[in-house]
Design a protein that fits this description.
The protein is an alpha/beta fold and 121 residues long. It has a single domain, classed as 2,3-Dihydroxybiphenyl 1,2-Dioxygenase, domain 1 (Roll). The protein contains two helices and eight strands. The strands form two sheets. It has a four-stranded mixed beta sheet, with helices on one face. The chain has a four-stranded mixed beta sheet with strand order 5-8-7-6, with helices on one face. The radius of gyration is 15 Å and the shape is globular. The protein starts with 8 loop residues before the first strand and ends with a strand.
């Protein structure tokens, strides 16, 4: 079976404020800008994964949908950094036995739910 090979992955979401979004993703989460398209900003998550926010797209979310999950070994370090920056609605990290992960949730400036997680297996 032939599988398509993709070079990178980008998720695009809507934003009402590119400046606040840029500040949050660059200065708090430490991401760099991959491309500035004037109405859209694309941030590097890593070499193959990116996330973009666009002014011309609607901000659509409900409760914890969608969840943007960033996987890292440094869950506690990121938690403490977010507390230091006074990011709102940051939950304390905890073990989730059902999924065998260590994680926490918070909201970005657009209201999207972000999960910081580490797989425990």
């Amino acid at each position: 079976m032939n599988f398509m090979k993709f070079k990178e992955f980008i998720t695009f979401l809507g934003t009402k404020d590119l400046i606040k979004t840029s500040h949050f993703y660059q200065n708090i989460l430490g991401m760099t800008i991959y491309k500035d398209q004037d109405v859209c900003l694309i941030f590097n998550i890593n070499n193959q994964s990116k996330i973009g926010f666009c002014k011309h797209m609607a901000v659509i979310h409900e409760d914890k949908n969608p969840i943007l999950t960033f996987v890292t070994e440094k869950v506690d370090e990121i938690y403490h950094k977010l507390i230091k920056f006074r990011v709102e609605s940051v939950e304390q990290p905890k073990i989730n036995e059902k999924f065998n992960i260590y994680h926490f949730f918070f909201k970005d400036p657009n209201g999207y739910t972000i999960e910081i997680q580490k797989f425990l297996d």
